[in-house]
Design goal:
heterodimer, A: 0% helix
């Protein structure tokens, strides 16, 4: 069965600092991997996705993620965080017809 | 603009009452999904449908029912058999499983 682990429930960073959100997955084949962001009371917005090819993928809002097969990880990074990045971030893994989501990481940005 | 519309945004249910959440998409997507979101638990799949007049149970289908009579519509009914229905419900759709588009959600509260 596929599964996703996001080990950090809450993360606080200062504005302008770098960010890394961790994601580990379990999947029996080559995974499709996704990062989504959710603002309070809203739906999820796709930040980036990985299917194959270059293991470093670029997304919207200056985010990037790196797929490391040997570590079963797909960590999300941003070089310099903005106050507007405060939100909840979800990693997801899927293949075929459905996605499995992690439990999310709540990001707080200190000014 | 194309997208997914969920209504209502807020819904209140009395004990023993059935309620129906609406999900409509004009993206011409084949597959549609219902997820339930509770704090700290991420998104859990309730039901999904890949084509009209066909749907499958997800991980937490008990106490819920769906229909897919039209490609654009995938309503979710929360029945009285669902003992803990208070949650945030998200509808999503996709055409190629390369990334889901989400609605803005319905918050259901039992009163």
């Amino acid at each position: 069965a596929q599964s996703v682990t996001q080990p950090d429930i809450h993360i606080t960073v200062s504005e302008g600092a770098s960010l890394e959100l961790r994601c580990n997955y379990s999947y029996g084949a080559t995974p499709y991997l996704f990062w989504y962001v959710q603002s309070p009371g809203q739906g999820l917005q796709l930040l980036l996705k990985y299917f194959s090819g270059d293991t470093l993928v670029q997304g919207i809002k200056g985010f990037e993620a790196e797929f490391k097969r040997s570590q079963s990880s797909f960590n999300l990074r941003k070089p310099s965080v903005h106050w507007s990045d405060a939100a909840e971030y979800f990693c997801a893994v899927g293949g075929g017809n459905k996605l499995t989501f992690g439990t999310g990481t709540q990001l707080k940005v200190e000014l | 603009d194309g997208g997914i519309t969920q209504s209502p945004k807020y819904l209140f249910r009395k004990e023993g009452q059935n309620v129906t959440l609406s999900c409509e998409q004009n993206l011409n997507h084949d597959a549609m999904y219902w997820y339930r979101q509770d704090p700290g638990q991420g998104l859990r799949l309730i039901y999904y449908s890949q084509i009209v007049n066909d749907f499958q149970k997800g991980d937490i289908a008990e106490g819920y029912s769906v229909s897919r009579e039209k490609k654009e519509s995938f309503p979710l009914t929360v029945t009285s058999a669902q003992k803990n229905p208070t949650a945030f419900y998200l509808c999503a759709s996709t055409t190629d499983y390369y990334g889901y588009t989400f609605g803005s959600g319905t918050r259901l509260t039992v009163v």
